[in-house]
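Hello again, I could really use a second opinion on something today. My current little project is about how a certain protein chain folds up. You're getting the sequence in one-letter code plus the fold written as tokens. Here's the protein in full, and shout if anything looks odd to you:
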Amino acid sequence: MAAGPGARRLLSTSSFWLCCLLLLGRRAPGAAAARSGSPPQSPGSSIRTFTPFYFLVEPTDTLSTRGSSVVLNCSAYSQPSPKIEWKKDGTFLNLVSDDRRQLLPDGSLFISNVVHSKHNKPDEGYYQCVATVESLGTIVSRTAKLTVAGLPRFASQPEHSSVYAGDSAILNCEVNADLVPFVRWEQNRQPLLLDDRVLKLPSGTLVISNTTEGDGGLYRCIVESGGPPKYSDEAELKVLPGSKVTSNLVFLKQPSSLVRVIGESAVLPCVASGLPLPTIRWMKNEEALDTESSERLVLLAGGSLEISDITEDDAGTYFCVADNGNETIEAQAELTVQAQPEFLKQPTNIYAHESMDIVFECEVTGKPTPTVKWVKNGDMVIPSDYFKIVKEHNLQVLGLVKSDEGFYQCIAENDVGNAQAGAQLIILEHDVAIPTLPPTSLTSATTDHLAPATSGPLPSAPRDVVASLVSTRFIKLTWRTPASDPHGDNLTYSVFYTKEGITRERVENTSHPGEMQVTIQNLMPATVYIFRVMAHNKHGFGESSAPLRVETQPEVQLPGPAPNIRAYATSPTSITVTWETPLSGNGEIQNYKLYYMEKGTDKEQDVDVSSHSHTINGLKKYTEYSFRVVAYNKHGPGVSTQDVAVQTLSDVPSAAPQNLSLEVRNSKSIMIHWQPPPLATQNGQITGYKIRYRKASRKSDVTETLVPGTQLSQLIEGLDRGTEYNFRVAALTVNGTGPATDWLSAETFESDLDETRVPEVPSSLHVRPLVTSIVVSWTPPENQNIVVRGYAIGYGIGSPHAQTIKVDYKQRYYTIENLDPSSHYVITLKAFNNVGEGIPLYESAVTRPHTDTSEVDLFVINAPYTPVPDPTPMMPPVGVQASILSHDTIRITWADNSLPKHQKITDSRYYTVRWKTNIPANTKYKNANATTLSYLVTGLKANTLYEFSVMVTKGRRSSTWSMTAHGTTFELVPTSPPKDVTVVSKEGKPRTIIVNWQPPSEANGKITGYIIYYSTDVNAEIHDWVIEPVVGNRLTHQIQELTLDTPYYFKIQARNSKGMGPMSDAVQFRTPKADSSDKMPNDQASGSAGKGSRLPDLGSDYKTPMSGSNSPHGSPTSPLDSNMLLVVIISVGVITIVVVVIIAIFCTRRTTSHQKKKRAACKSVNGSHKYKGNAKDVKPPDLWIHHERLELKPIDKSPDPNPIMTDTPIPRNSQDITPVDNSMDSNIHQRRNSYRGHESEDSMSTLAGRRGMRPKMMMPFDSQPPQQSIRNTPSTDTMPASSSQTCCTDHQDPEGATSSSYLASSQEEDSGQSLPTAHVRPSHPLKSFAVPAIPPPGPPTYDPALPSTPLLSQQALNHHIHSMKTASIGTLGRSRPPMPVVVPSAPEVQETTRMLEDPESSYEPDELTKEMAHLEGLMKDLNAITTA
């Protein structure tokens, strides 16, 4: 590549100085030796020359395509040859291990097979060439941007159209701006030739003017950007015969504002259509343009204007005027001209000595105004006390040191481009004179030129160096001549000084030989400086004096503040500031410095002023600035005035409102929404908005509406049905109306539809998978009376929630692209409107593999009115993060990959943040718009999980929603009290009450506890109330030992980790008048079962009734009538004998063929099973629990009991006195064992009563007295039903399925619990009374084939054991559901759990009938006795 203008200028400048130096070298002795590298012959005889080191070629901005190769040119000149390296985005590239990037011999960078995808863009970025010569320095080139054209996407495609012959036609084909060079057109599948009549606009759109019959046909545009060509839809252009009927004059294509760089070309499109045919003319700033005589202005096909070789004078507003004799229309566009940075003055090479001060000068121009930065040997120069930017762009280096040598570059940059120019600094030894080059780069303090040094004696150190005058900002030094030269007439002196603690020295020289004093100025007040003086004769520098330490005086002689400072705005861009002379000037005021700064920034600017007023121009419109003035006298700056603030005047807005959107409400109204213009372009207070709208068919009939400035939406009513309207909005200030938005169209509905509910499910969904895409097509919901505003398509691998795309309501198909081959995608489709999203329709598809080369046939649904959705959606924001700030505030931040690297928003894009919580599940999203990369969401609920996502909108393009971020707000003290507080008396304990409540509705965190306050005086101070703390997972509590017949007041307060919430309202409760603990058991149990009556409290003083009912704690029964007790004992004995006899008879009837078979009950869901086994494995039945071996094990499935269900009452009635064993065991087997052996009584949860227990009776079958207490602890629980199920002996029932019948509950009991227990087939009731056998020794073993949970396990023998073996007589004559028992298996049972159907093991019907009748009689007698 050829070198750019900047490179050529740099080359010519460097060549000029090179020639000068060569000529100088010929005159200076020893110069040739220096160039050849030979050592100097004598002091001062050798001067290092400047080394030519510059770029021959620098990289330029480049546009590439994916998969292609790119060369970024770079070539540098130097002797020796420089080493070339490359930086990308400021970081050095490692080209040694890079297989795609390589360094060419001339230093250029070659990139093969450019990689570019949606999420991986390793090659796109900013590149810089770095050239280095060892022991010399480093220079860097300008920065070049490599842009990779994205995937071809059509923003608009050609549509079917017709045109009258002679008129103009437009065929749209808008693609990404970087792909426009790759667009071409075809007519009837043949390449289309462009000429004066057929024009392709820079946007890709095709313009055909003066159409003829031959222009008809099928058109399509093609994008060829490296990969396979991308074809647009084909559109037919029909050319109709010329018509004499007039038609309205309309613009087919209007000009749009452009930004161009000096030297480029610009095309302002303008195409109009109408009959009679219109003529096009152009105006600029109200002056007509002569396109016929101008060489740079050309009228293209259709009337578009091309401006070539743009200059700065071409900037302005251009008007396109179309006129056909009947009417005239016009459109306007702004052309902004920018200029790349150019150097008016480049830095020049400098020779200097150590401790000198130098200035590199650099003047640049450009539009926008360039920024300047300095680079030394490739590294950025950071301003400091010794490196300063002066006069805006110049670099001043104070107190040079040897390490300051090298190459310095001035780099100028603006939005258009960047440029660099450099110079070399050489620091000579003190005995080497500075060559007589133009000394413009040396400061006044170091501009002396020393004569060439010769050999000879050097002077000694100057004597008696003293500070004769010390002020705040200067010090005067004096000294005597050196002892070696008492006269010293030919000596000059150099004073070296530095701040204490700083190694970098500065130097000040005397003005003429023999002078022995110097004044050092521009010092800092109250600062310690170190001074030393050296004498210099014709032979060189002599010895240095001893260091002198001097401290400057504190500031005392400075001017005071300037009084009466005033500032007032004189125009929208200028402010005038006035002030008066300081009252305490402390001498003559030399000048003033006016400082000013824009509000909200920290960059203060200043200007030197010699008078008492100054006008600052070029300020921002309607912007507040602060001003202050500092007076200067001979001692320096004085005291600053106070800041005075003033705002520039307002002006009309310089930009249109943002984000204009239209929402069709019904057949006669459209809602318009917009956002204000960007804040920097409002130029004043927005006082209102002007809305203009018209029918699309009648563009000359425009209606205007004004709305207040605070209103950002307006409902336009009274429109026609099924009509398309155009809308635009402009902002107003007190100064006038600003520019309007582009026209935006919307069509009213043909009929009014319902939007009070979400749309129904789409009637069909079809997917067609391809290799990397899936074509989705659908039909709308069958119910056409509900408004559908669009469709949401969700898709992802395995889940449809990974990506979401929204399309227009007219859309009927969509192609999901950029998918992975051979992947399973789930797709969902939902119709939505303003109420929300409807029911989704799901479908799945597997994309084809890469190897699938079959022809792709794409089905397009016939939808002539359906436009293709925007194929170029914005990239969604990334890196969404939710930062929790408080209990109701979360800050959302994100990044936008479509923005430049510095993430600075320069266009009119805005972001939409949405959030919701999933509790309740049907919560709707809330939305808010933002114009920055963060948003503060407030008004959230405390301790609530929210999900957030962001989308970006630019014009009519929007992205999909980003990945969601989640955040849970901090907890807050509860803001509502516990609710539903109720107080009830505990049955059987009138001095005990039960308080129940529900958690607060606004807990704002996890409730960690409750405090119950109660008192007999509702008006008492709260610290006088009694306090009862309760853990947070409890919603009920018992309070005991209250006074009878006394009103109590109760309040409850909840707390969480943040503190206490408010108290509930006081609830009054009066305790009962008398203690009812002496009532009969039946009285306490009164009330029908299942009615929700409360479980009576059976305390320690309550005795077990004769029926075998026990209190929950196994307390002794109260004494009963002895006669009744005697009758019960006799009856039980008789029944026992009868049962034993019957069992013995039945066992003797068994055949010997079955005596060797083993019988065992096992788990069954729908029926009974048997085990087959050897006779030796058969164990005798054991109906009872051996407490010394077994222990109750809870089988609660939940790790912690449900606190809401504590102390649940058990329904009772007079016919059903449920014993504790029954209730507890029923709980264990029928529910998820809420029994806890060591819990207090108020923690019990017994639900057996709620399920309607069948009447049953518990009777003692032991020699123990009936008053023996049965305690409700794991070591003493009587659990007959849970005893080990044993096998039959040779003489026993072949079924062998004996169990305690008191577990037999009604069939209404819940049998759906899947407890891992064995189930025993129900048999005849008489079988429950088997003869107890000796339990097998050792702990029971369990068959692994039976996944049963042991309810009983080994218990320690040293416990005090009280047990009562009982059996219950269940409901006779009916089968019972399976009962959970523990079944110990025989050691060698290998059969599955099946019971054999054996006809011989059944009972004779007559015997059964007889025995059942006898037992039923006994039951009736017992029931009569117990109820008497």
Notes: Residues 1122-1148 form the longest helix (27 residues). The longest strand covers residues 328-345. The chain has a mean pLDDT of 74. The chain is about 5% helix and 35% strand.
